[in-house]
Amino acid sequence: MHLHILGICGTFMGSLALLARDLGHTVTGSDQNVYPPMSTQLENAGITLMQGYDRSHLQPHPDLVIVGNAMKRGIDGVEYMLNVGLPYVSGPQFLADHVLQGKHVLGVAGTHGKTTTTTMLAWVLDQAGLEPGFLIGGVPLGFKESARLGGGKYFCVEADEYDSAFFDKRSKFVHYHPKTAILNNLEFDHADIFDDLAAIQKQFHHLVRTIPSEGCIIAPVTETHIDEVLEMGCWTPVVRTSLTAHAQAALSAEQLQADGSHFKVLQDGVVQGEVCWNMTGQHSVANALATIAAAAHVGVSIETACAALSNFGGVKRRMELLDTVRGIEVYDDFAHHPTAIDTTLEGARKRLGERKLWAIIEPRSNTMRMGSHKDGLAHSARLADEVIWYQPEGLDWDLQPVVAAAPNKAKIARTLDDIIHTVSQEAGEGDAVVIMSNGGFGGLHQKLLSALKSA
């Protein structure tokens, strides 16, 4: 079949495009925002990309249109699709119908850490020889691409709570029917589609209702919002994890390094393995414990999982070191929420010690653009020595109160040139610069590196 994907450069849809290609379909796609790393991955895979959403992209007519959840009524391609009666489906539904049937699905859900944990899980199962398929909402460093069909019965999927399409407002993960489910954490997010935390918890409980009684749910002992979901009704055994020794935790960690780079894994208080890796932050340790528990549910020993994680390469745009110029380290991080900013900077601070830490932050997610998290932003960046908040045109609120509430040095930049000038003039050898955005940030990363090299 010829499949055309509207919104193909989104992290989910781009990965889905790779799976559709591997199923033998001809795949084309349209998107308004075509930028690396996803655009590069798709072009390398031989998938034709078109800029914008013009109806001409659907001529001649494809056999099926897969509609991304960023599509809205009024978009030219969407209106044309509906008016001429082209068959269409949401991305999650296509995945469920054409890829997940007959598979043991391992789903990773939560406000934070989905991409990294899904990648960890796929990596562990792969290193254990299980040949898992996977769909990851990012570009993993340990695999050639962000999705593959796999050769075994297992499929790891990033189970997102965002809605499926303009015609299907259920969360994506409701379609996946996982047998093994990681519920990493739960906070209020996606203010553009959810009114409050209770609305998100309702969707999470829809997911819980689909997990079989012979399956497994993995959740931290500290997540009260997940506890509230499970109290609505749970028919599946729950395995608990903890960053410290805890009576209710089947798996816990004994920290050997404060930055999370080295720790032992205990099962019911007995050491079963040890992880020494390049990841940092307590959130990374938490993700590792969930991964190990999920892998154990499909027969991978804790010792084997720990050995695999010790060789884990990470995910692009998750504290990814882009380059070191004149002794200045420049990192790219996909921060989309105050908690994500906080935990990322915590790991960086523990690793860097007294070295200067810069945070350059674009409040780009729909929730942050709406200002829903603005009261917590100043605190979330407190561990950086210097913070530059980017105030682009069109941001719905003023960042000045965030800067005023900052306990550290903070300023607003209204252009990329302002950011580049400040960092290239003031950063010195030994400094670390973390660029935080869930978008392309106008190409700031490479522009800053070029400026540092020529300074």
Automatic annotation (TrEMBL):
It is an enzyme of class 6 (ligase). The keyword Ligase applies. GO terms for molecular function: ATP binding; UDP-N-acetylmuramate-L-alanyl-gamma-D-glutamyl-meso-2,6-diaminoheptanedioate ligase activity. It catalyses: UDP-N-acetyl-alpha-D-muramate + L-alanyl-gamma-D-glutamyl-meso-2,6-diaminopimelate + ATP = UDP-N-acetyl-alpha-D-muramoyl-L-alanyl-gamma-D-glutamyl-meso-2,6-diaminopimelate + ADP + phosphate + H(+). Residues 2-99 form the Mur ligase N-terminal catalytic domain. Pathway: Cell wall biogenesis; peptidoglycan recycling. It holds the Pfam family Mur_ligase. Residues 108-295 form the Mur ligase central domain. Keywords: ATP-binding, Cell cycle, Cell division, Cell shape, Cell wall biogenesis/degradation, Ligase, Magnesium, Nucleotide-binding, Peptidoglycan synthesis. InterPro entries: Mpl, Mur-like_cat_sf, Mur_ligase_C, Mur_ligase_C_dom_sf, Mur_ligase_cen, Mur_ligase_N, MurCDEF_pg_biosynth. ATP binds at residues 110-116. Residues 317-439 form the Mur ligase C-terminal domain. Its EC number is 6.3.2.45. The keyword Cell cycle applies. Belongs to the MurCDEF family. Mpl subfamily. PANTHER family: UDP-N-ACETYLMURAMATE--L-ALANINE LIGASE-RELATED (PTHR43445), UDP-N-ACETYLMURAMATE--L-ALANYL-GAMMA-D-GLUTAMYL-MESO-2,6-DIAMINOHEPTANDIOATE LIGASE (PTHR43445:SF5). This is UDP-N-acetylmuramate--L-alanyl-gamma-D-glutamyl-meso-2,6-diaminoheptandioate ligase. It comes from Acinetobacter indicus CIP 110367. The gene is mpl.
